[in-house]
Amino acid sequence: MATDPVYKRILLKLSGESLTGEREFGIDATVLNRFAGEVEKACQIGVQIAIVIGGGNIFRGLSEKAKEMDRVQADNTGMLATIINSLALQDVLEKKNIYTRVMTAIEMPKVAEPFIRRRAVRHLEKGRVVIFAGGTGNPYFTTDTAAVLRAIEIEADVIIKGTRVDGVYDKDPEKVKDAMRFKQISYMDVVNRGLKVMDMTAIALSMDNKLPIIVFNFNKEDNLKNLLLGESIGTLVQE
């Protein structure tokens, strides 16, 4: 295996639900610490890392529980949930002596920096992990779309989506035994097949800007590091 990473700068997209572990909601400290450990290994091989994490473990704007709420209020609540998760992840990373900055689209200067593109890039160049919180700062956009937008803005080489399955399948592998995993697939095939890689806005934005997406199993130890070192892991989505 190569010792030099194949990507210089990445954006890692994680779901908020992945932080729940065996809980129904909230943050499982063991899971959070394990995720931080995987990020630490990626930092050690010299990759510049930005992260976007969802807020679904705390609140999801489109959930059944939120259906009685005004959509804008629900989405604003969801964006605030991403900030909670981002601050929790920052705390664990810094306990591992990894310099980390949380930058948020919703200004709250007492707890995080406002998102400024040039400042974010400078943090990355200095070897700091940058966590983008607060979505896009606007309702009606998911954290998938926010992740793609931030990846484009910082000129990331790739967006890497961590999931609990090892790639993109033609059917739900957790429900269908003979589901087939794609090693590589085009953006248009994702759209035409209705595959749930990311929401359609995020896929379209990635396609327009030729930003490759890799979907992989983040729960497997060393998977992120090995992927960054060039091992064939997960599914690559590109033209």
Task: Based on the model shown, name its key terms.
239 residues, alpha/beta, nine-stranded mixed sheet, two-stranded antiparallel ribbon, 35% helix
Description of the molecule:
The protein has 239 residues and is an alpha/beta fold. The protein contains 7 helices and 11 strands. The protein has helices at 29-44, 71-95, 117-125, 143-153, 187-193, 200-208, 223-228, and strands at 9-14, 48-53, 100-104, 113-114, 129-133, 158-163, 168-169, 181-182, 184-186, 213-217, 235-238. The longest helix is centred in the middle third of the chain and has 25 residues, at 71-95.
Please work out how many helical segments DSSP would assign: 7
| DSSP summary, beta strand count | 11
N-C termini distance: 26 Å
Indicate the overall shape: globular
CATH homologous group name: Acetylglutamate kinase-like
Number of domains: 1
Q: Mind summarizing the main beta sheet?
A: 9 strands, mixed
Helix/strand-derived category reads alpha/beta
Query: What ranges have pLDDT less than 50 throughout 5 or more consecutive residues?
Result: none
CATH architecture: 3-Layer(aba) Sandwich
Instruction: Please state how the strands of the largest beta sheet are arranged side by side.
Output: 4-3-5-2-1-6-10-11-9
- Give the helix level as a range of percent: 25-40%
Radius of gyration: 17 Å
In terms of DSSP E residues, the strand content is 15-25%
Quaternary organisation of the protein chains:
single chain
CATH topology: Carbamate kinase
The top-level CATH class is Alpha Beta
Average pLDDT rating: 93
Taken in chain order, the helices and strands follow as: EHEHEEHEHEEEEHHEHE
